[in-house]
Amino acid sequence: PKKVTTLSLASKKRRGHKITMVTAYDYPSAVHVDRAGIDVVLVGDSCAMVELGFDTTQPITLDQMIHHCQAVKRGAPSRPLLVGDMPFGSYEFEDRDVALKNAYRMVKEGGMDAVKFEGGSTSRAKIVKHVVEGGVAVLGHIGLTPQAISVLGGFRAQGRTAIRARALLDEAIRLQDAGAFAIVLECIPSNVAAAITEVLEIPTIGIGAGGGTSGQVLVFHDLLGMLSHPHHEEFVPKFCKQYARVGMEINDGLAQFKQEVEDGTFPGQAYAPYVMTEAEEKMFN
Ligand code: KIV
Ligand code: NA
């Protein structure tokens, strides 16, 4: 299968074909996302929450992100476009070379094809431009930008007034002008996302932004129900459709293993494959 590139994504938008993106954080999730034929694998900093158990995306470090990127690269080495999230604190500085240096680490050490930055302010767009000029493709991300949780005050929808929607459109155009190859639109009204998508030449990838974007992204654990359980409530975002409840299957397998070990059914004869020859056994006994 042909490698997905920033150019093939642009061509998908032009032809009206939807782009698919799913997060992955380790070898098995990357193998699954690749085998499913998803266009873009995002090593999201949502890793901090769904893999590492933090309440926000803020704590994860660049070294930790790179560690996860490397595993994803081994699981999906050739076909999908690999995008890595630049973590909180690794790209926002006025010294744009900090962002560029850290983006190079995501590419050279992490094996990523591109990086993602949150935010679309004038100063952020300058950083994007610098990194793109340095040779690293950048995916933008506006609307709900979880790294800014302490400023936003919570995980809530953005761009719900005319003025805020207008500001989002300005951010999107700014990022396009800075050289971003696509933009993630998170938790904004559907009509605003559709309008931004229509104005932009580059593709938009929505999450909680309705059907008018050039593509859709969901978090692996959310869409597959990794933490679903027969007796515990699982948090699922309002905008997320759950396509499987993998956690149920995991729980079932673990419960059966426990039962069979405790009642002596496992391993039994069937799973005790190693035997001695009779001659050796005689000497041993
Ligand atoms: O970290 C992440 O998973 C993301 C997606 C939700 C776009 O940024
Ligand atoms: Na993210």
TrEMBL record:
GO terms for molecular function: 3-methyl-2-oxobutanoate hydroxymethyltransferase activity. Pathway: Cofactor biosynthesis; (R)-pantothenate biosynthesis; (R)-pantoate from 3-methyl-2-oxobutanoate: step 1/2. It comes from the Eukaryota. It catalyses: (6R)-5,10-methylene-5,6,7,8-tetrahydrofolate + 3-methyl-2-oxobutanoate + H2O = 2-dehydropantoate + (6S)-5,6,7,8-tetrahydrofolate. Its EC number is 2.1.2.11. Keywords: Transferase. Belongs to the PanB family. This is 3-methyl-2-oxobutanoate hydroxymethyltransferase.
